[in-house]
């Protein structure tokens, strides 16, 4: 019987085309507005590394001068080179890595491809297994190469295809980066965590991953200039070496623990480390450390702004207005058919049968509205990408969002159809037959 009612629902779309078009457009515009903002919110607030986000932590240490504390009482968002190296070399945690951004020049050695700048990071070998970075060719450098500041590099798939050609394995070949030759040991496959949680400070939070990964000690030894944010609470000696030796904070440090339950133990370790440094004349302020897991780190950096949340609620408010209008249009559509309802009731149809039939018709309108609404959502997201290509990764409609759009549209149409359907069920057969 449901299939029969479904067929009636699709045939009824042609009965009053003007009302049908108005209902579909009203519903689809509301769905498109809410799904566009919901897609952006979903992309911004999703877990970028599910299954691991509660075991990955970024520490923050308060090395501000005693006479110049931060206004908000919060420690710096990054750490000094001194602290990053100390935490890294002490080896606490399952895996760990310092990170700082680079913008190296790439010389392909080809006459048809002049030198160009690329995005890169200086990291430890643990970076790749820590963040589940996939490899297309080769692998990460070894711990021994990490320790001796070897001239090796891991490059991204995009850079590999640009310099060496698509489908070519460049492992073992040499690439010139910032006036030095590096041996390629691996090629990272397409990898774009959204948001870019491991480089939120001084970087595009929704950009694609880097194309150059250089061993941290190698980058420091060759004085590869940082590309990112730097905060100096005290003056530093001039030059790269001065920054390295200073109390300036300019890099991130990440650690992976065996389990989330090890968090307090690691926090105690950080306190002990700072107390040791206090004995050496550093960290003049009281203990003020922080330890964030991935999702806490996203919240702290306000990856999802209040404006985004407000826009989402406003869009759903607009959908509610569209529902109210759809209710009025459905009332007009169903109220024009009392004679048909009277005949059906006289022939033995129950109120439940009438209710099911007309609610199914409302659901059909929701299905058509979902199709149009999804199309409008894609168009709206493409329009947004036209303003800012950097947010392309969060404007993609995945399977979850597509399913949500369909369910939302059908549910909205069924909700809007409840009152008109109930009104249709109140038709008295005898009165309608007498008037015919």
TrEMBL record:
Keywords: Cell membrane, Membrane, Transmembrane, Transmembrane helix. It is a multi-pass membrane protein. Residues 20-272 form the MacB-like periplasmic core domain. One of its GO terms (cellular component) is plasma membrane. It comes from the Bacteria. The chain crosses the membrane at residues 313-334, 355-384, 399-422. The lineage of its organism: Bacteria, Pseudomonadati, Pseudomonadota, Gammaproteobacteria, Lysobacterales. Pfam families: FtsX (PF02687), MacB_PCD (PF12704). It is found in: Cell membrane. One of its GO terms (molecular function) is transmembrane transporter activity. This is FtsX-like permease family protein.
């Amino acid at each position: 019987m449901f299939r029969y009612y479904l067929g009636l629902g699709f045939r009824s779309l042609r009965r009053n085309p003007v009302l049908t078009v108005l209902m579909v457009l009203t519903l689809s515009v509301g769905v498109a507005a809410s799904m566009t903002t919901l897609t952006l919110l979903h992309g911004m607030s999703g877990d970028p590394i599910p299954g691991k986000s509660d075991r990955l932590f970024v520490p923050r240490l308060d090395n501000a001068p005693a006479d110049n504390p931060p206004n908000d009482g919060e420690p710096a968002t990054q750490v000094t080179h001194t602290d990053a190296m100390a935490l890294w070399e002490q080896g606490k945690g399952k895996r760990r890595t310092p990170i700082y951004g680079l913008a190296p020049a790439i010389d392909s050695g080809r006459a048809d491809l002049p030198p160009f700048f690329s995005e890169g990071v200086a990291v430890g070998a643990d970076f790749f297994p820590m963040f589940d970075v996939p490899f297309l060719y080769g692998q990460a450098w070894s711990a021994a190469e990490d320790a001796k500041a070897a001239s090796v590099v891991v490059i991204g798939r995009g850079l590999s295809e640009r310099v060496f050609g698509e489908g070519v394995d460049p492992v073992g070949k040499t690439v010139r980066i910032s006036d030095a030759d590096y041996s390629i040991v691996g090629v990272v496959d397409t990898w774009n965590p959204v948001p870019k949680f491991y480089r939120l400070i001084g970087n595009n939070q929704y950009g694609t991953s880097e194309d150059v990964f250089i061993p941290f000690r190698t980058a420091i030894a060759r004085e590869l200039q940082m590309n990112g944010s730097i905060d100096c609470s005290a003056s530093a000696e001039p030059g790269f070496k001065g920054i390295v030796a200073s109390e300036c904070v300019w890099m991130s440090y990440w650690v992976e623990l065996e389990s989330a339950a090890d968090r307090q133990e690691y926090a105690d370790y950080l306190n002990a480390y700072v107390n040791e440094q206090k004995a050496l004349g550093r960290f003049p302020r009281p203990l003020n450390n922080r330890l964030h897991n991935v999702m806490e780190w996203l919240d702290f950096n306000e990856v999802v702004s209040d404006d985004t949340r407000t826009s989402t609620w406003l869009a759903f408010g607009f959908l509610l207005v569209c529902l109210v209008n759809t209710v009025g249009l459905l009332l007009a559509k169903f109220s024009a058919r009392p004679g048909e309802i009277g005949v059906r009731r006289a022939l033995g149809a129950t109120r439940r049968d009438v209710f099911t039939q007309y609610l199914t018709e409302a659901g059909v309108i929701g299905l058509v509205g979902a199709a149009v609404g999804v199309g409008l959502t894609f168009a709206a997201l493409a329009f947004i990408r036209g303003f800012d290509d950097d947010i392309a990764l969060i404007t993609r409609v995945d399977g979850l969002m597509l399913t949500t759009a369909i369910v939302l549209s059908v549910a909205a149409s069924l909700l809007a159809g409840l009152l008109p359907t109930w009104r249709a069920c109140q038709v008295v057969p005898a009165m309608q037959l007498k008037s015919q």
